[in-house]
Amino acid sequence: MTRADARENRARILEVARAALAEDGSTSMNQIAQRAGVGPGTLYRNFPTREALALAVYRLEIDQLTGSVPGLLAALPPREALRRWTTDLVSAMRRKHGLGDALSPAAHKSAADQSYGPVIAAITQLLDAGKHDGTIRPDADPRDFLQLTGALWRAAIGPEDRSQPMLSLILDGLSPRP
Prior knowledge:
The protein is mainly alpha-helical. It has helices at residues 3-23, 29-36, 40-46, 50-67, 69-75, 78-98, 105-133, 142-149, 152-155, 163-173. It folds into two domains: 1-48, Arc Repressor Mutant, subunit A; 49-173, Tetracycline Repressor, domain 2, CATH 1.10.357.10. Helix 1 crosses helix 2 (29-36), helix 4 runs antiparallel to helix 6 (78-98) and helix 6 crosses helix 10.
């Protein structure tokens, strides 16, 4: 098999696993291999454990999320870019917590620790853009913003999704003081 084929298999496995684990956190490795159209050997060569696969899915999501910031800032005003990005962050948080069956408590902590720096850097970019155009108060701190948005994934669960009204309150709090 060529290196390109191996990369394509890995990417396909990750995308299939991402969708399958979002649907049902108890999806088996064999089911993921079948859906990805690869043999079990290929799956286990890339991801020796279910936890390794779940962590790779989470890392992929964080990489895509943090990598989306420049495009959002190029296409949208900073405050709207922050709103859109935070909505995506909340979805990623919800999916990470949905991986509960696949991740041990230590793996959950490891995933959070590994993603903290890149997520803070992304929030910093978004806040700095808003500070620069005057739509975000100068004392806004990315760590505080992340802490506040941490509750939003829980608000998005259940019959009444309260995450957007809560996000509006958080964003209102970022407005410069008169």
